[in-house]
Amino acid sequence: MSTTSRCRVCDGLVTEFFDFGRQPLSDAFIPPTADPAEEFFFRLAVGVCRECTMVQLMEEVPRERMFHADYPYHSSGSLVMRAHFEATAERLLATELTGPDPFIVEIGCNDGVMLRTVARAGVRHLGVEPSSGVANVAAAHGVRVQHSFFEAETARAIAEREGPADVIYAANTLCHIPYLGSVLAGVTALLAPDGVFVFEDPYFGDIIAQTSFDQIYDEHFFYFTVRSVRAMAARHGLELVDVQRLPVHGGEIRYTLARAGTRAPTPAVAALLAEEDAARLVAPDTLAGFAARVRGVRDELTALLRELRARGERVVGYGATAKSATVLNYCGIGPELIPFICDSTPAKQGRLTPGSHIPVREPAAFADPYPDVAVLFAWNHAEEIMAKEAAFRASGGRWVRYVPRVWIG
Ligand code: SAH
Ligand code: TYD
Ligand code: ZN
Fold this sequence. Notes:
Layout: E1 4-6, E2 13-24, E3 41-49, E4 55-57, H1 63-66, H2 79-95, E5 103-107, H3 115-120, E6 124-128, H4 132-140, E7 145-146, H5 152-162, E8 165-171, H6 180-190, E9 191-202, H7 204-210, E10 222-223, H8 226-234, E11 238-246, E12 252-259, H9 267-279, H10 284-310, E13 315-318, H11 322-331, E14 341-342, E15 360-361, E16 373-376, H12 382-388, H13 390-394, E17 398-401, E18 407-408
Parallel strand pairs: 5-6, 5-8, 6-7, 8-9, 13-14, 13-16, 14-15, 16-17
Antiparallel strand pairs: 1-2, 2-3, 3-4, 4-10, 9-12, 11-12, 17-18
Helix pairs in contact: 5-6
Bound molecules: S-adenosyl-L-homocysteine, thymidine-5'-diphosphate (TYD) and zinc ion (ZN).
S-adenosyl-L-homocysteine (SAH) is lined by residues 67, 71, 73, 75, 107-108, 110, 113, 128-131, 134, 149-150, 171-173, 176-177.
């Protein structure tokens, strides 16, 4: 086991600040009949580059193990996220298109949650999506999709075939890609001279502020900050020209990159940089404080679940998220503490959670009858889920949350 590695952005020295130990693939929900010996595990540990400040995993999982025909995550599963991506598409269509035949490319379009709006507007577009199951859903919604991993080669071929892109967009995908150098080389090959590369991903500042350690899992290779993104852009002749904080998925930033010198950065960039500096976001004592709080959440959550079991209360989970894999496996929570988790995703239902082997059931099982307590693993969708399941609380049920701290009520 090594506590240093090389930065995937600048080749600097990355020093580890937290080790979650042996973890499974977060989205590898297994059939109950599967041989547990076949399950893939890796060491989930996270570190920070002392040169460029990029926060990243210490070990990489081969991409084909995570993103394939059976990738179960469907972006359209949340009403709030559907509205978010519709508004995003409308904004890109209204502000970023030029010329008579504009072109939008999305990296990781999943089931087409964003590009559906672009397709409906009749604007030329292309989604690049390696997971063919979700890509086929996008295609069924009228989205043009190419089944491949976006990297330098893919991007060059698209540029040659279809010309430059006014907008390259990626949501919750850029942070999934360890070979970022290749992706950015592809972006610079494909982007129109005055085009923009817009991407949004979980913000490391929010992860630290809320101790949302469950954002750390195999698919999330990078944990961006304004400072690290700005440095990464500069290495590729790009410039960070805007940042916007987003309330979705527990706190994200939408970064806008343009070719260096083509657009004046908005005041928001300098303002957030100053905020990050004041917070000393990646300083050793900040990271040590985060690590101590993560252990505290683990101890409190497991103590609470054991106490509930001892009292004979009926506990279930809500939302078989990828994030929950880190919580369940790091805290050692299995079916003895949480007998099942409800989730609206058909591809997860009837299967077991990776590593922790908790059965996943359809949302109807939640009310049949209501449990005493529900652990909200999809805490980033709290408003939507609590509104939908208002009858649970009305019946005397209580929710357990663990972000930003363990809480029952
Ligand atoms: N944009 C959607 C999907 C996020 S899930 C949303 O915000 O909800 C991440 C997606 O990225 C998955 O569908 C995965 O298959 C895809 N992906 C992973 N690596 C990729 C790569 N190199 N190029 C393009 N897509 C990739
Ligand atoms: P999400 O938190 O979006 O992402 P990740 O898997 O990357 O952590 O996952 C939300 C999960 O919760 C997804 O499996 C669908 C499920 N879900 C419900 O069961 N009901 C709901 O109302 C919503 C919004 C989500
Ligand atoms: Zn670096």
